[in-house]
Amino acid sequence: MLRLNDSAVITVEGISMLPTLQEDDTIMISKSQNYGLGDILVFAYPTEELLVHRLIRKTENILYCKGDNAFRLEEVSPNQVYGKIIMVNGLDILPWPLWKVNLSYAVHCEFINCQNVISQTRQTQIYKLYNEIILKNEGAVHMTYRKNESMEFIQADTSSLAVFDSESGDAHFFDETGIDILNILATPHTLESLIGELCSIYAVKPEEIQEDVEEFLSETVSKKVVLAE
Length: 229
Hints:
Layout: H1 2-5, E1 7-11, E2 26-30, E3 40-44, E4 50-58, E5 63-66, E6 74-76, E7 81-88, E8 91-92, H2 98-113, H3 118-121, H4 125-135, E9 144-147, E10 152-157, E11 160-164, E12 171-174, H5 176-184, E13 189-190, H6 191-202, H7 206-222, E14 226-228
Helix pairs in contact: 2-4, 2-7, 4-7, 6-7
């Protein structure tokens, strides 16, 4: 089909790409000369099956893919790839932004750190954050987020904040919006209550800022500036 039409339609089986792809979803594949981080690729697997997973990292000769609802990366050579998904159930699909890609990769790193034990990985802050803002599993326990008071916070003025991690020697910098969020997180907040307070400050609707707040938490929890519990 790809040779004849440059596109093909297949049906999804399995749950490794939840919640992006559901069982029995119809996906359209398109050939491409170049694949970017966040694209969902269809590639041949050694068991002679086709896998549909997201491109998370890449080098010149190897593409590293992972299911959104999985833990391990697969090493894929470019000649194994049939194409990338451009439509799901007749609707266009866009690649993930880089912060989501990085968070998914962080889950894989935690999996390796936990010696490939899924139950231990699920107890890490990174996975719990990923579960809340990416997987959005029903019945999941809502996390609380708070500023990591063990770090040194140096505010030069109302629009500039430096956070110094004495353990790693890293410094992180935040603008006025970041300062507002960290000030709110001086006390523990759920994602919902954090967004609610920010809506009051900026007179916006939750849906207008939710993804920006999720991106902020993704970056700051990864850097341990914010603790997720």
